[in-house]
């Protein structure tokens, strides 16, 4: 994936790609780069029968900012063709969505490790993370981003009550993903500028359910704990006895029949 | 009847294998017994009814019971030995009495009823709370070997002061071990139990290291910083966390620190 992304970065730079702000994210038009964009799993392709030469993609805010700020391979314009600088973009995104700093930090953290990160909203999470392209693998993790520190104000309340945590766990489990909690922490830090990104620290932790019934390691000697149901045991043994009885009688009958025939 | 013996052993093995759970399906799935139907079969078929029960006498100063007559094999993985005497703490007493494997006596040799035993547990004075008792019961019923964290399985001398020290509280109230932890400002964070996988070779004289330590989580989940401090203090042995909800339902969680690999 790192190679695909490096290729994409180089190609976007060379073609001087420009993204246009739209809604919460941006749209990007590319010539001949659709395949690369798809392979790197950025954005969603917009079907457009009219356009032959250009392909349009819709990018989420984190995706767009990653291409702009970290990979530095696109420029961004507002809807009225005004070039957007980094500070302006940061202000815009943080005002539209307060958790943008920690969301972006989490996104960037995973992308820099070459994980594929897509929106996790349909799974009840912030992101989903794949080891490679979603068409090739299932996503392993449902990612929830939890900020920590005064700078984040009232946003630190996620997963602080049991119903919250168990809800997230249940949601991720029902789609066969492990819940990954990325805690973004910082000492006092000014979130109004993208410079804060290097001061944010990401901690990774998984939350998994442990089922004691499934994890007992049984030796050959039966456990001395006699809490298992003896009554059920008796019924089962009864069935077993009758099973063997049937086999035994069948064998005897066939032997007798065999002897009688001769 | 070697064949039958082999078959029953196989059955036992098969029965103990996990009920297949889907990914993410857990023991929290609801299975409601319909109370509107008259059931002829007893719903208490899961409980073990024993004809012979051990007898133990409650000792108030120790907050525990001394066994006077021991029957059956449960004692091999339950209770601690102090100066040659077998002693059960409140959660062990509760568990055994519910299984009719123990009769608890007072100093007048009268039977102490289950309500009084529940009172002792719920009161929290003897080092175990009601929630902790639920967690203890859940694991014990599945065959795990569960002991209070920091309490040795056997001790040679049986003086009262030693007993008080060794029956340190599961909830983190005063005792030697928890005192030193209090000084480190993490008194919420002692493990409650040390747990061993079901093991017929378990010996109290040399139990070995527990398979994991169990911490009880109450009002709210642990924050990251608390988790890290806990892991640093009990490093090496895996930690599992148990949440008992308001209805007594027990669930177990792992909060594992990971480091996602950098992919190629």
What report would you give on this structure?
By secondary structure, chain A is α+β, with helices and mostly antiparallel strands. Chain A has 2 domains: 1-97, MutS, DNA mismatch repair protein, domain I (3-Layer(aba) Sandwich); 98-212, Trna Endonuclease, Chain: A, domain 1 (3-Layer(aba) Sandwich), CATH 3.40.1350.10. Chain A is built from 7 helices and 10 strands. Chain A has helices at residues 2-14, 34-39, 61-70, 86-96, 100-112, 162-174, 230-261, and strands at 18-22, 25-31, 44-46, 54-59, 75-77, 116-119, 127-130, 141-148, 178-185, 201-210. Chain A has a 5-stranded mixed β-sheet with strand order 3-4-2-1-5. Mean pLDDT of chain A is 84; it is low at 218-237. With 264 residues, chain B is α/β, with parallel strands linked by helices. Among the domains of chain B are: 51-127, 3-Layer(aba) Sandwich (MutS, DNA mismatch repair protein, domain I), CATH 3.40.1170.20; 129-153 and 185-259, Trna Endonuclease, Chain: A, domain 1 (3-Layer(aba) Sandwich), CATH 3.40.1350. Helices cover 27% and strands 20% of the residues of chain B. Chain B contains 7 helices and 11 strands. Chain B has a 6-stranded mixed β-sheet, covered by helices on one side. Chain B is globular. The model of chain B is unreliable at 8-27 and 159-187 (pLDDT under 50). At the A-B interface, helix 6, strand 9, strand 10 and helix 7 of A face helix 1, helix 4 and strand 11 of B.
CATH fold name of the largest domain in chain A: Trna Endonuclease, Chain: A, domain 1
Classify the secondary structure makeup of chain B into a structural class.
alpha/beta
Q: What is the count of structural domains of chain A?
A: 2
CATH architecture of the domain at 129-153 and 185-259 in chain B: 3-Layer(aba) Sandwich
CATH architecture group name of the largest domain in chain A = 3-Layer(aba) Sandwich
GO biological process, one term (chain A): tRNA-type intron splice site recognition and cleavage
EC number (chain A): 4.6.1.16
Catalytic activity (chain A): pretRNA = a 3'-half-tRNA molecule with a 5'-OH end + a 5'-half-tRNA molecule with a 2',3'-cyclic phosphate end + an intron with a 2',3'-cyclic phosphate and a 5'-hydroxyl terminus
Transmembrane segments (chain A): 241-260
